[in-house]
Write a structure and sequence with these properties.
By secondary structure, the chain is mainly beta. The chain is 10% helix and 34% strand. Strand 3 (36-40) and strand 4 form a beta hairpin. The mean pLDDT is 94.
């Protein structure tokens, strides 16, 4: 059964079911947790809480990545 999340304005379908936590989502998307700020349904999630933050069908997630440069 597939599940969906809205990530950065785009609907993403997970055919094998949702990742359980925000940490697992970042791993699935190959995003380093140290380089991202996450917001779920308008609430900023502290990085130390990523592993304890459960995900649910239909949530809206914004991931803002830091990029170095000059």
């Amino acid at each position: 059964m597939s599940s969906q999340l809205k990530i950065n304005g785009e609907t993403k379908t997970f055919d094998q079911g949702l990742p359980d936590t925000l940490t697992q989502l970042l791993e699935t998307l190959a995003i380093d947790a140290a380089t991202v700020v996450a917001e779920i349904d308008g609430r900023i999630i502290e990085r130390k809480s990523f592993a304890q933050t459960s995900l649910s069908e239909g949530q809206t997630i914004e991931l803002i990545r830091f990029v170095g440069g000059g």
